[in-house]
Amino acid sequence: MFNKKFYNELALAFSKADENFGATKFIKEVTKDMEPLSLNERMRKTSHILRKHLPADYKKAIEVLYKVIPTTQRGYTNLVFPDLVGVYGHDNVDLSLEALKYFTQFGSSEFAIREFLKRDFNRTIKVMHVWAKDKNADVRRLASEGSRPRLPWSFKLDEVIKNPKSTQGILEILKTDDELYVRKSVANHLNDHSKDNTDFMLRVLKSWDKSNAHTAWIVKHASRSLIKKGNASSLALFDFEKNPKIKIQNFKILKPKIKLGTNLEFEFDLISEKNIKQKLVVDYIIHYQKKGKELSAKVFKLKELELKAKEKISISKKQMIKDFTTRKHFSGEHLLEIQVNGKVLAKLAFKLSI
User: pLDDT per residue over 163-197, tens digit each?
Assistant: First the structure.
């Protein structure tokens, strides 16, 4: 993403917006020693070099950014614009927050806004409550996403973790939002709270009117981590059995020895041992071999169902075992478990070779 082609296009865009922009020097400086840097390090370096080549006056520099960002292609590289504000904009907070509101419509300001929350939480969160009512969905999402307690790829917001009510007003405003994009952020925000402030999060979910389809979707999605853990209160929200009477039979892994890049395939029978129907959420857990020979568990959703009295159903699943940017596999023994309503009922081992 942050490559020579990108910088050539970026330099051209800034040259059109600012006649004093030194495109050739900018490209030379920003691409120097770029190769070993991570994606986020490249973004931060770009922000630093770009600031050097913009007008010294911060307000004039922001004016140039305003001109350029609508001409760019929306995507991750556009985070350079809010990142520059997050680094250099703290001496003019009002101007900077307004810029972040605008820039988020072209590339999210969710990371940059946290720099302002860290320095002046009360002032910034007050503005974000206003953003939650904005007509633009990107701005509304920023109000929730930017104030998440545990936003991935960013630092924790200790103020929100200590006082979860500080963002509750934002979530209340957005709980019926028409945009799925916004509702996903609200659900993820609440799911963050489930890790540090479980009781608070559950009280909020219980208080919401779940007859509204949008709110009901948020409640369900926000509860996913607690349901996977078998949290009794979260299971009760959706009428899942707290203590299911279930038996698993004929559980087998079709190929107990597999290679990276092939499928893990398994099947089992789920049998009710109760005389009335049971509402169940069935997950499977893979305990991955880590580099140090320890195991690391990952829970995957399998299905939700209502099992009738004494009913038996057969379930099968296949999953490709391959490397991702977030997960590297290692050879050795792995463990597969079947979980029903948060309780592990069966387990088998399989071996992976790289």
Answer: 999 999 999 999 999 999 999 999 999 999 999 99
CATH topology of domain 246-353: Immunoglobulin-like (2.60.40)
- CA separation for the pair 123, 179 (Å, rounded): 27
| The pLDDT of residue 291 is above 90 | no
For residues 52 and 72, give the distance between their C-alpha atoms in angstroms, rounded to a whole number.
Answer: 20
Cα-based angle 346, 351, 354 (whole degrees, multiple of 5) = 145
Domains of the chain: which residue ranges?
A: 1-109, 246-353
pTM equals 0.87
Provide CB contacts within 8 A for 289, sequence distance 6+. Answer: 295, 329, 330, 331, 332, 333, 334, 352
Q: What is the mean pLDDT of residues 22-37?
A: 92
Q: Which residues contact 167 (CB under 8 A, 6 or more apart)?
A: 125, 144, 147, 149, 160, 189
Distance CA(175)–CA(209), nearest Å, equals 10
What pLDDT, on a 0 to 100 scale, did the predictor assign at position 102? 98
Q: How far apart are CA 201 and CA 219, in angstroms?
A: 10
Alpha carbons 223 and 204: distance in angstroms, whole number: 11
